[in-house]
Fold this sequence. Notes:
Layout: E1 4-8, E2 14-19, E3 41-46, H1 49-58, E4 63-69, E5 76-81, E6 87-92
Parallel strand pairs: 3-6
Antiparallel strand pairs: 1-2, 4-5, 5-6
Amino acid sequence: GDHFSVLTNKDNEIVLCLHAWERDGHPTMKDQSLTAGNGLLLYFRTSDWKKVKHNLEEIEWTIEEEIHLNKNSRRQELSFRDPDGYFITVTEFHIYEG
């Protein structure tokens, strides 16, 4: 898209995503004046993402966004912050479709 770029390797695995500020409502991409974790989204794909949610509940980490359908990727995902304040999204595994 106009504000999102993806670098993939020869196997079409995502290596890096670059996203413009203040687009698509990402919590850590809204306000450039914030510090810890701001401007960075950590995004992981896994075939066992429900287990990740279970593990987060076990260690009592706060889930920022419960499991929901992401309207952009059309995949189920959930998001949380690590102890340093970084915003992490875990989504059901899928092949990048460009």
